[in-house]
Write a structure and sequence with these properties.
Helix content: 10-25%
Largest sheet: 13 strands, antiparallel
Strand content: 35-45%
Distance between the termini: 61 Å
Number of helices: 4
Structural class: alpha+beta
Number of strands: 22
Length: 350
């Protein structure tokens, strides 16, 4: 009787333990996670640097002669030129007037002298061909004609010095104020013009990157005032010499700024594209965990998390290329992965 009671007690304990185990399995906690279906894309290996954007063409024009100040009208607005106005190459922005100086040049007289010299040279040439003039007389008429041409050209150049002319298409960035008809001395600053549809920036690159950075590589240019826009540039020049003081080498980046989004003087960030992978498995860098120098992530299949050991390749600031361990359309855990273990039950958050 005693043995029968002990056996019954053991059976009851076994049944209770099994029921408890079944209940525990049924009530296993599901870890809430967010997942992202992996798609193929492109990624670039970038080398980051910074620098100041500088106008490719920039000039400050000063008065070459003295005279009365005459700010010209902008044909596009019908009003006097002002800061920010666009100018065309050859356009007169400011004119200086000095009647005494202009009379001294006597340009009309020089034009008449040239006409007379041309007629005399033609006459002497005809006489020489008919034997009515010597070679010396004909050559002297050639000299007179040449001198008359030079004299007129110099007169035109002297008159042109009274005009302040835009040397290229650009924008007025400085325009000192002078009273209209006030006398301006020679050498006074008149106007500053910049063309910044194309910019350049000088950069100093670490010695460790000299094997990666090459001429003509593309560059992505960004600035905090245009966070949603990335301008394109290119490595235009590279120095082969390493500075012994800074352990860097110099380079120059040319920036396409046709829409004038960047302004000269802005401090910008440049990402040099030294390598690129197309149609690659790309995942966020922050989901990768490490254990004993092995990189791994979690994927979800049928509400169960599985660990995947991965090999990586190119990376940028946010993403990284996975060369082995994942495939397209895998459901990658992007949130809630910190507490997961192999075969953990998960609940996918929408």
């Amino acid at each position: 009787m005693k043995y029968r009671i002990l056996l019954s007690t053991a059976v009851v304990a076994l049944i209770t333990a099994c029921n408890s185990q079944i209940q525990t399995n049924q009530n296993e906690v599901e870890t809430p996670v967010s997942v992202q279906e992996i798609k193929k894309g492109s990624i670039s290996k970038l080398i980051n640097t910074t620098g100041t954007a500088t106008a490719t063409y920039s000039v400050v024009l000063s008065s070459e002669m003295s005279g009365l100040y005459k700010l010209q009208n902008n044909p596009a607005t019908g009003r006097p030129f002002k800061l920010g106005d666009q100018v065309r190459k050859g356009q007169v922005v400011i004119r200086l007037e000095d009647k005494e100086y202009e009379n001294g040049i006597a340009i009309d007289s020089k034009k008449l002298s040239l006409d007379i010299a041309e007629q005399e040279q033609k006459k002497q040439k005809e006489l020489y061909e008919k034997g009515g003039a010597t070679l010396t007389e004909m050559r002297n008429s050639d000299v007179s004609l040449t001198n008359a041409r030079y004299s007129l050209e110099n007169a035109v150049i002297s008159l042109e010095k009274m005009n302040v002319v835009a040397p290229f298409d650009g924008v007025i960035v400085s325009l000192p104020h002078y009273t209209d008809n006030g006398r301006i001395a020679q050498g006074q600053e008149m106007v500053g013009i910049m063309s910044y549809s194309s910019l350049y920036m000088d950069v100093n690159l670490p010695e460790s990157t000299i094997g990666y950075v090459k001429q003509n590589q593309p560059v992505h240019i960004t600035h905090y005032t245009i966070p949603d826009d990335t301008l394109q540039g290119v490595i235009s020049q590279l120095s082969p010499a390493i500075s012994t003081e800074t352990r860097t080498f110099k380079g120059m980046i040319q920036i396409d700024n046709k829409q004038l989004k960047l302004r000269p003087g802005m401090f910008v960030k440049a990402d040099i594209v030294v390598d690129r992978a197309e149609s690659a498995i790309i995942i966020p860098k922050d989901v990768i965990m490490t254990n004993r120098n092995r990189k791994y992530v979690y994927i979800v299949e049928r509400n169960t998390a599985f660990q995947r050991i991965i090999q990586t390749g190119l990376e940028d600031e946010e993403n990284i290329e996975v060369t082995d361990g994942l495939k397209e359309n895998d459901n990658l855990v992007t949130r809630g992965y910190e507490t997961l273990r192999e075969n953990s039950r998960v609940k996918i958050l929408k």
